[in-house]
């Protein structure tokens, strides 16, 4: 983390877990502890149907609500989809774009990620853009090329003044939901690479102001080591965000 230049953000990705009532109960459990923190922003990324209950439950706390996906078109014949304007009107602040589960199971590509980032920004939402390599890519020694390509395509046609709204999350696919965590060194190296790609396009000042999270089996035990790295500005946390005790330990470590 480097608090001088950028915000630390801890975001819990609930994935397809928690009904609205269960989600409200989880927020009530954590908000007394994480809802007043000064040094890091806390975000809960909830299923679409949980959004209204989550917005109500977080009204008196410093916790922002995020969606886990959105469509890139403003409106139209896209049955089952949700637009950025719809999320914005509910009070959503952030939206995860390009999570590896969306890429893997729902055919999301670097191009749709780019379109979604642009639509989110236009609607006034802050995209949390996920990039990461598979185990096969890491073992083939092409992590750097793959991440560079993902970041470059994600940022196609994004103006410098839009950059301050974007958050990146480095999420190695092999570490998501597997219990395998990248070492602090691996996480810091790739977060540093993402920052270098941004620096090459937008300059040093922009690059040092961007929050770059790590995600992939981050938990109460390994969070301190990961967050101690200067290029790791927080976490996108799946499994451990569903347990209030673990999530509050992670927010505490980021504090
Ligand atoms: C995620 O869903 O973004 C994630 C990192 O999941 P987990 O922490 O369970 O690996």
Task: Give a verbal description of the structure.
With 255 residues, this protein is of the alpha/beta class. The chain is built from eleven helices and eight strands. It has an eight-stranded parallel beta sheet with strand order 7-6-5-4-3-2-1-8. Helix 1 (20-34) links the parallel strand 1 and strand 2 (40-45). The protein is globular and about 45 Å long. 46% of the residues are buried. It binds phosphoenolpyruvate (PEP). Phosphoenolpyruvate binds next to strand 8.
Bound molecules: phosphoenolpyruvate
- SSE-based structural type: alpha/beta
Q: Low-confidence stretches at least 5 residues in length (pLDDT < 50)?
A: none
Average predicted confidence as pLDDT: 95
Amount of beta strand: 5-15%
Widest sheet: strand order?
Answer: 7-6-5-4-3-2-1-8
Q: Please tally the helical runs, counting DSSP H or I stretches of 4 or more residues.
A: 11
Gyration radius, rounded: 17 Å
Q: Span from first to last CA? A: 10 Å
Question: What overall form do the CA principal axes indicate?
Answer: globular
Total strand segments? 8
What is the helix content?
40-55%
Sheet with most strands? 8 strands, parallel
In short:
The protein is an alpha/beta fold and 255 residues long. Helix content is 42%, strand content 15%.
Outline the fold blueprint.
Layout: E1 8-13, H1 20-34, E2 40-45, H2 51-57, E3 63-67, H3 84-90, E4 94-97, H4 100-105, H5 110-123, E5 126-131, H6 135-139, H7 143-154, E6 167-170, H8 184-202, H9 204-209, E7 212-214, H10 223-227, E8 234-237, H11 244-254
Parallel strand pairs: 1-2, 1-8, 2-3, 3-4, 4-5, 5-6, 6-7
Helix pairs in contact: 1-2, 1-11, 7-8
The structure holds phosphoenolpyruvate (PEP).
């Amino acid at each position: 983390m480097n608090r001088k230049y950028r915000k630390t953000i801890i975001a819990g990705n609930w994935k397809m877990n928690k009904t609205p009532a269960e989600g409200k109960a989880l927020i009530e459990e954590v908000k007394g502890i994480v809802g007043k923190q000064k040094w890091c922003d806390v975000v809960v990324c909830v299923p679409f149907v949980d959004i209204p209950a989550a917005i109500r439950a977080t009204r008196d706390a410093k916790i922002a609500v995020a969606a886990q996906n959105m469509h890139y078109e403003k409106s139209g014949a896209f049955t089952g989809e949700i637009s950025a304007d719809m999320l914005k009107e509910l009070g959503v602040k952030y939206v995860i774009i390009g999570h590896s589960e969306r890429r893997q199971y729902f055919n999301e590509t670097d191009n749709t990620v780019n379109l979604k980032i642009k639509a989110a920004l236009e609607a006034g939402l802050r995209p949390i853009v996920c990039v990461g390599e598979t185990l096969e890519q890491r073992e083939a020694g092409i992590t750097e090329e793959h991440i560079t390509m993902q970041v470059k395509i994600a940022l196609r046609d994004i103006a410098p003044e839009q950059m301050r709204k974007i958050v990146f999350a480095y999420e190695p696919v092999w570490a998501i939901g597997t219990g395998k965590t990248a070492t602090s060194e691996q996480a810091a190296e790739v977060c540093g690479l993402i920052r270098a790609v941004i620096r090459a396009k937008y300059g040093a000042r922009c690059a040092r102001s961007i929050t770059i999270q790590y995600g992939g089996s981050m938990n109460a035990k390994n969070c301190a080591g990961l967050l101690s790295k200067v290029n790791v500005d927080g976490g996108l946390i799946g499994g451990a965000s569903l347990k209030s005790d673990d999530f509050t330990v992670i927010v505490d470590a980021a504090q």
